[in-house]
Structure to design on (456 residues):
């Protein structure tokens, strides 16, 4: 194992909690927990429209904005001017890390090349890394490959960029579908438990699955397992 | 100014000194200073073959190898097996920073988004950053844009990725041609003096030119000028 590639949303940063905190501070009079989940739920269908060719290549910032406009309508939020909507849309650049993420990544970085492999655009991921103090060696994004995960070109692209075999790359994610697609490309996989990814009122099943190479509660435990 | 984009070879790292040290340690019986300069001199013509369409898109690692094979022949170096040649070719991943680079970048990073903008491929730049401790917020490369500097799509690509106006980007380089191309795209420019880029036996003219926004001896002085 030489390169660790990390899913970001939900795995390294707490999108739900971060968005809820920002929405609550805005006082919009909606259920922030539901609003955040609705925004996130629009993500896969929007990417699907790009990958099917219905939409041309679109940065995640712009997909987030299309979904946000729709969610604002559905939740009947009125009175936000364009500059506040633009600012809210960039909350994805301001997501906070899980408590173990920065220290865990720092330990893993001492021994491995660590990179993001996220559907977020480069500017989003770089802004988030600066905000959250994520010590990436390298930010890799769907934008580099012009394809979203789970397209094989993204997982294989990591191996190609670092000139290593796919089995020398460990894909780290809190989502089994992401890991399954990486495994199909020959990568090793580590599942990270993030039971509260969707909020404390919607805990998710984080039971181990035998097909993953590793299963860890968090990034500190992953560092322990990898002898960092 | 919100984003600082750095040329890397010669501006942030000392390619000549680093390659000379490695060649001397190998004991090849050639003038290491001349060998290093010959290798580097093949770089622009090789990129030109790509940009003219004569060669398809090629990573700098592979261009370096093509040039290296030629330079080894011209300097009549024999007896290096494939694994040593491969290792030598990756010396570009192991270049050492100038003495002010790491501390200067760290100061600049506290106030600006700092990224590379280099014709090196992503894997090369990430390996070098890890080796040299370069604290990039983001590694941008010709590989992201599928075009080499001085193609305008590289300079304008930095502004696009960070969603800022070209004038909000400062291109930082020790080469006037790089800065001139950036300026033509509307970026601001900072010239960094690196009089010994080509070795102590070939000092280069580093006189100021009025067309640059800033002129600094090194990255610490640039941080001073920018109030970091």
């Amino acid at each position: 194992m030489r390169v660790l590639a990390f899913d970001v949303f939900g795995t390294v940063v707490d999108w739900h909690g971060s968005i809820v905190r920002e929405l609550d501070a805005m006082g919009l009079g909606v259920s922030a927990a539901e609003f955040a989940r609705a925004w996130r739920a629009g993500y896969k269908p929007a990417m699907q429209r790009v990958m099917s060719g219905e939409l041309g290549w679109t940065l995640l910032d712009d997909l987030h904005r299309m979904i946000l406009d729709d969610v604002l309508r559905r939740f009947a939020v009125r009175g936000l001017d364009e500059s506040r909507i633009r600012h809210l849309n960039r909350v994805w650049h301001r997501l906070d890390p899980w408590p173990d993420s920065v220290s865990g990544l720092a330990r893993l970085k001492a021994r491995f090349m660590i990179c993001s492999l996220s559907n977020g655009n480069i500017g989003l991921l770089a802004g988030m890394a600066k905000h959250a103090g994520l010590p990436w060696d390298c930010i890799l994004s769907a934008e580099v490959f012009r394809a979203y995960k789970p397209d094989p070109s993204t997982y294989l692209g990591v191996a190609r960029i670092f000139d290593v075999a796919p089995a020398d790359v460990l894909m780290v994610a809190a989502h089994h579908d992401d890991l399954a697609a990486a495994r199909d490309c020959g990568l090793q996989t580590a599942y990270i438990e993030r039971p509260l990814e969707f909020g404390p009122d919607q805990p998710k099943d984080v039971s181990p699955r035998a097909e993953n190479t590793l299963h860890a509660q968090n990034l500190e435990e992953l560092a322990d397992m990898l002898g960092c």
